[in-house]
Structure prediction request, 496 residues.
Amino acid sequence: MYLFRIFCMCLLISIAYGRISLSADLSQEHFEQVNERLNRLENKVEDLDECYVRVKDIQKDVEMIRKSMSQGAATKEQKTEVREQIEARVEKLEDSVQDLTGRAALMDMAEEIRRVTEYVCPNGHGFETMSEDGKCRICGLNLKERTHFKKFKFARRESISDKISTALDEEFKKRILVGASGTGIFQQILNDSEGRHSSAEGSLDLLFIGKPLTYMTFFVDLEATGGNGPDESIGSLSGLNDDSGSLQDNDGVDRVSVREAWLQTELLKQHVRLVIGKIDLTNYFDSNDVANDETTQFITSAFVNNRTLEVPENGPGIVSFYDTRKGVFFGLGLQSADNSGLDIVDSLYGIGEVGMRSRYLFGLEGTYRLWAKINGGRNENKGSGMSIDQHLSAKLVAFARYGMNETDGADVKSAWSTGLELRHPFLSRVNDSTAFAFGHTESVDGNDEQVTEVYYKFAFNDHFAITPLFQAVFDPVGLEDSDVVTLAGIRTQIEF
Prediction:
């Protein structure tokens, strides 16, 4: 374009120069023709200038369109990237929702009746607090205090792992959580003719819980126990005090024992739980919502765990659990039969369990577990069993257990137990509970024994409870001259 303009200007100059040089020779007519021709050329140059300006404008428009197109492409790429990020985040949120739903399904939802105080006017307007002038904030009438009872839903967590998780969530910033639990049990034999009337037993546990990493838990349980309970004199096959087992020296000095010390980690979005250290297998297998804790529920050993388990004393071991978060879970445990720490891979005790949580019965929570074990410390003795707890209503829960062993290497051939627990039986005692259980145990040498227990737990608060209880043993193995032995007792429990 610039060359074209230069060419046109040169042409005009040459024409003008020619016109000047020829003007003297040209006639007036010729001069007018040339002048007209020159005017046309000037008009054409002006048109060309105008076209050039238009071309420049068009070039600017083209540049703007190209820039807009490039920006549009970048925006499109950016939108695609944002869309991918949003889709990834939505997928992550869906996984989180599913995970939370699974966690909620693991909880035992129950109802609790609590006393509620309201302040109500004659028109029915209710308030949680009394106004300063005692008048209704809506209509201005006098407020009156009204007390009634209301049901609240809450989630019960009975297992040690769940309790630890709850405590850690609440006290995570502290990193180290220290707790204490003290239990004292007094038992009186009511129909003993040989002077073996009473026994007392007590235990103290100091609990240390730490969280070195986000999904890792370190747990230590130091325990001191004094007293062997009535089993020392009666010799029951069922076990009348599962909390007993003195740790005193021969000179009567109490000793402190490391009952448990393990490290737990959670993997695969917390679906897998791995525990390694000195463990108690009964904390993970043959669990039950109604009968699984001698410090807060039944104290008879036949109701705390199935007698056919015959697990070794706490020792080195490993436990792995996989929870689908859809109601089904699997567990596998291995423990050394010897707590000395020598040859821990020899004579292993192994147990596996599959469980299911469901609401098939009237839409109420129930848990069903099947387990199988092999005891390398007892001639590879094999056994299997089941544990069931099922809510029959919001307050009434039933449980049942059954187990059997091969006779070679076992002490107990078969055992079963069943019972009921009634939670907050009275409106004024919303944290209390009462329960009844009956069980049967058969030894490999043919001895049969039946046992029953009933208790009522007065829970004064979350830290202190007193539990009167009654036990009866039919055909006790250790007393051939007695058909029935009855016991009355009381248990006190303090937790911090």
